[in-house]
Amino acid sequence: MSDFDPSRTVVIANPASRGGWVSREWSSLTSQIRRALGDVQFEQTRGPRDATAIATKRVEEGAETIISLGGDGTHGEVADGIASAEEGRAQLGILHAGTGGDFRRTLRSAEDLGAACDVIKRSRAVPVDLGRVDYLDDDGEEARRHFLNLASVGMAGMIDRIVANASRRFGAATYAIATLKGSLRYRPARVRLTIDGASRGEFTVANICICNGRYAGGGMMFAPNARLCDGLFDVIVIESASTLRSAPVLLGLYRGAHVRSRLVQTFRGAEIVVTPLSDDPAWMDIDGEAPGTAPATFTVLPGALPLLGVPEDVR
User: Fold this and answer.
1) Which of 14, 99, 161, 283 fits as disulfide partner to 74, beta carbons 3.0 to 4.6 Å?
2) pLDDT for 205-220, tens place per residue?
3) Is the pTM of this model over 0.90?
């Protein structure tokens, strides 16, 4: 990959991110980014999956750096678009402007926009793993997409839907409120878990998390030991239980202490298959979005995405 070239750089922004903050601050944001990075180009998304289409098109047209300005859903879509390009190769930069902002926690990205731009401009890209998932969309049709941070089966997909329909968003508090609502509505799915061809058992799940990054849900540390460049997913199985038994697990998620609970099992692997065994929907979460349900197959693609600003301790 060549050194950073603003003339071959495209910023893909989600104007709806952070409750419309990106749209309201658009003029100021573009001015700040151009001061920091030079005369880069900008694109705004208009709806779901638009970031994927824009990223694919721009990479195939010769862009060398694609910068995602938005939340985890936008970052995941942009990564999907880069990976889906039939021609060209581009590196990804992250500028956080979302509600939860979980992937940037793994990267330890700067909150200050200028400092985050400086990381993009000065760092060298590291080839990180990317996830690919095959699942069923909401119409019951087979679908496939890539994910950057984390995908899961269970309550998280329902929580995503609650967050998406929230009239107002307040960062991590939005996810905490949605988690409480989701726990009251969710009907636990019974699933079979297969890892690298070996059955790992049947579970009635609150969530099965397939982790490339460490955080999700507005700061919950689902996979404390996950690394971006090891060619493996960290798999976290959280079994369903009563509210009383589940409460310590939920609280422990914010410190990564949940992995010590008897309700939690951890595995590692490169191909994960989740097969529903009950009629209750096994809701999917993919990088903070809820596109469908299991059955699902998750496959790690080692070193598939050049990413800027990756710290040594998560490689």
Assistant:
1) 14
2) 999 999 999 998 888 9
3) yes
